[in-house]
């Protein structure tokens, strides 16, 4: 009927106006008049138009971005609720000062302690900056440590500031005064190994961990009663233990046991599996577990002879890592340092899982692929918020160096302290 037709026409006109306001391109389409219109052009032909230009997909900016699954490279070892900020910050500090630490070691070995800037740009691995970046981006971050100057040959050179030259002389005095201590640390490392020998290259690679000087390979010649340097079958130089010293064959854990027996008993847990039918309360279960945990196996024993997957062998490996960390300057080591001595200490691929089972003694920071293990007993949480107990003179020096490295100019207080 007529009324219904009018309603349909009104709906079509409304839809047409709405469509044109939403899609302006439709306005360019000519209007088609009714067949009864006298002005219609008989030569005009219309073709069906495509709607492919209409937006039918959700724009990317409105799509919900899916989270990438965490990998071992990015996944943190600790949950946010169990993180210890001080330990995590130390791992971050290592990354922050990587350029400073590596550049200091490398440039200090160069003639006159200088390096041509063009050459420095190619030594990204030796100087500790990312590949593809310019070294000139990192030098200005430590203006009190590094300086550049133009030589008479017209080339730019990189060297140390006067402040840094003085600090290096101060560090050398510390190294000389601590030589006997460093020698004993290396002796204890050798006594812990399976064959009482370590490649000199491995000791050199981990020297900063123990405060061992750069020229240690030459200094060992002064101690023939302690060391022998031999050439292995592959041509590499090997450091061997010359004599066993029973006074050094006492682990840090054993010393703790003699001073505080209860503390030593609580250091590790090797739970004994038992059925619920025993109905043990917490105290009785703890006593039963201690029977399983103690005695520990000394890292200076022949524990490497034990069956690899026995409880006694795991106790031995835990003791090895504990003693290894106690010999480091900062009571910590990265996965790379520990893997360096994997064969010498008879460690397995399960070292990460083994350490995670002992949260009372060890704290693992960083990511699952690149973690650092801390010896918690080496830090005091009550007195100074997690500070290192009994800082080595080299550690004190390093902390001063880091302080200067973060300064953009010399402060008055720092000048007075140096004087």
Mean pLDDT: 84
Which radius of gyration do the C-alpha atoms yield?
A: 35 Å
- Based on secondary structure, the structural category is alpha+beta
First-last Cα distance: 107 Å
H/E series, N to C?
HHHEHHEEHHEHHHEEHHHHEHHEEEEHH
Question: What is the domain total for the residues?
Answer: 3
**Gross morphology:** extended
Uncertain stretches: none
The amount of beta strand, in percent, is 5-15%
Number of strands: 11
Which key terms come to mind for this protein?
Arc Repressor Mutant, subunit A, 3 domains, three-stranded antiparallel sheet, 18 helices
Describe this structure in words.
- InterPro entries: PORR_domain, PORR_fam.
- One of its GO terms (molecular function) is RNA binding.
- It comes from Noccaea caerulescens (Alpine penny-cress).
- This protein is of the alpha+beta class and 419 residues long.
- The strands form 4 sheets. A 3-stranded antiparallel sheet has the order 1-3-2.
- The chain is extended and about 120 Å long.
- The chain folds into 3 domains: 98 residues; 66 residues, Arc Repressor Mutant, subunit A (Orthogonal Bundle), CATH 1.10.10; 142 residues, no CATH class.
